[in-house]
Each structure stands twice: as C-alpha cells, then as structure tokens.
Amino acid sequence: MRMIPQMANLISLKISHRPSDQKEEFFSTLRNCLQQSSFHELHLFHIYDLPFSVLDDVKCIKHLTLSNCLTTKGEASFPTSQLSLETLVLSGVFIPDLHRWAMKWVTRLTTLELSNLKLDLDSDWLAFPELLAACSNSLTRLRIDMSDRCMLYLSIIFFKFTYIS
Amino acid sequence: MRLERISISAPITENKWALPEIIRVVNTAPVIQVVILQFHSLFLHTSLARMDWSLLDRLKSDLTGKRPLIKLCVTAEGRTPEDILGALKANEAVMDLVEHNMVILKSEGTSVWGD
C-alpha cells in the first residue's frame, strides 16, 4: 500500500479519501500504523466506510479528527483497550453510532471541537449531549462551530446537555 | 464541569435567543475563565441591535468572585474590520460591557481559542 508509507516513528497521519479499490489492504496498513507507540495524531477526512475496529486497536493516540467520516453500517464494536484521547475533533456528517462509540474514549478528554455538523433533528441527535456529559469531568476546552447551521441545534445540544449532566 | 474555555461560532441573524443558551452552559462551569464568541452577521447594524447584549451581565462569578472574560469577534459579509469595530462602538450595550471590563473586542483572524 503506497498511500500510507511504512515509517518506524510515525507521529501524525492525515488522510483524505481512501483509494477506491484495495479497501482491505488500506485499512490493514492503517491499523498497523496506528499501533505504533510513537503515533499520537490521526486526522481522517472523507473516509466513507471506516470500520470502528481500526480505531479500537489504537493505543497511544492523543488527538483524533474525524471529518465527514462514515462508519461501516451495522458494525458493533467495543474498544479492547482504554484510550487516553486528549483532543477529539468531529465535523461534517453526523453519525450517532460514531459519537456513542467515541464516548468510551473520552473520559480523559481535555479538548472537544464540534464543527459544521450536519444534524438531522429526526435522527438520534441526543448523542451529542451524551458525549458532552461523558467528558464533562475532564474537559477544559469546548468549541462549537455552528457557522452554517441553524442555531436551533445549538439550543437543543445545550438544553439536553444541561438536562443530562 | 471543569471547563475553562468555551468557543462558539454562530450566525447572529435570527439568534436573539442564542445568548441565553450560551450563558446557561457557561454558568454550569464553575471555573470557566474565557468565553470566545465569534458571531457572523449578514446585516451588521441590524444584527447587533437585535442582540440583547445585557444578557452577558448574567454570567456568574467563580469562587474568587471573578467573572469569565468574554472575547467577542464579529464578522460581517462585505464589511471591513474597521466597519465592524465602528458598528460595535456605536452599540451602547456592547460598549457598556467593554467599559466594565467584561468584554474584549477581537478582530477578525482571532484564533478559535481567542489567543
């Protein structure tokens, strides 16, 4: 897999779109990269079939960005190790399952950024306030960018968050 | 909540009620120090006039009696930073908050964390 080079001390990786073919090989190579102890930052953009299990094996990651990423439909996954994510950035397509899954990783989160999330009020948007509540004991920085979305969402997120917490 | 800093970007076309929501969350964080508000406006003077800025006076103090500092950055389509600063200075409610050291006006290009 040429897209992700094999490097012994990779610290940070930013990937936008995966190759249309070689799906299995791509995620296998990505999984190997993420298991390196030097690896701290992962930024994924426009990955439309991301298996949860790829991220479950990550051990040392501190910063995770998921922008317009979709997960494999119907996949249920439980992290095998306790991660210590410090920064989580979520933007673009909103997937309740992904946010619920991320809750298991955010007990030590200090920075959370939510930006340009494409919310559907009919979908399970309750995942947001639940995510906020899950990291409320460690979170010191919260950024919400609703620049191009209806302010109604902000109201709902905050209202539900204060209700849950 | 241990939240020390909250940063919110939002339009201010129809959101007169956005401030109460923001204040409600800020007031649940007892040690919050900085609130960064980045508001985007289509109709600068009208939008600023619509906002009930005095609501920001409802932010609670922390245990030491200090209120969180509000860093306010307004952007507007087709307006220069000078236009925006002029509009903010012409708004009595905003300037009242500035004079009481509750609000610092920040220019466009301020980082999302207000630094």
Number of helices of chain B: 4
Number of helices of chain A: 5
Through-space gap between termini of chain A:
45 Å
Number of domains as seen in the coordinates of chain A: 1
State the share of residues found in helices of chain B, binned by percent.
25-40%
CA-atom Rg of chain A in angstroms: 16 Å
**CATH T-level fold name of chain B:** Transcription Regulator spoIIAA
Secondary-structure element series of chain B:
EHEHEHHE
The CA-CA distance between the termini of chain B, in Å, is 22 Å
Q: Write down the CATH class of chain A.
A: Alpha Beta
What does the main sheet of chain A amount to? Answer: 6 strands, parallel
Most extensive protein-chain contact, per-chain counts:
A-B, 23 and 23 residues
Class computed from helices, strands and strand pairing of chain A: alpha/beta
Brief summary of the model shown:
By secondary structure, chain A is an alpha/beta fold. Chain A has helices spanning 23-34, 52-56, 96-102, 127-134, 151-164; strands spanning 12-16, 41-45, 63-67, 87-93, 111-118, 141-145.
Which structural traits does this protein have?
heterodimer, A: 165 residues, alpha/beta, Leucine-rich repeat, LRR (right-handed beta-alpha superhelix), 6 strands, B: 115 residues, Transcription Regulator spoIIAA, four-stranded parallel β-sheet, 4 strands, 29% helix, 23% strand
Structure description:
The complex is a heterodimer of chains A (165) and B (115). Helix content of chain A is 28%, strand content 21%. Chain A is α/β, with parallel strands linked by helices and 165 residues long. Chain A has one domain (12-164): Leucine-rich repeat, LRR (right-handed beta-alpha superhelix). Chain A has a 6-stranded parallel sheet with strand order 1-2-3-4-5-6, with no helix packed on it. The mean pLDDT of chain A is 76. Chain B is α/β, with parallel strands linked by helices and 115 residues long. Chain B has one domain: Transcription Regulator spoIIAA, CATH 3.30.750. Chain B contains 4 helices and 4 strands. Chain B has a 4-stranded parallel sheet with strand order 1-2-3-4. In chain B, α1 links the parallel β1 (5-11) and β2. Chain A binds chain B through residues 113, 115, 136-148, 151, 154-155, 158-159, 161-162, 165, and chain B through 1-11, 14-15, 17-18, 21-22, 24-25, 28, 40, 112-113. β6 (141-145) of chain A pairs parallel with β1 of chain B.
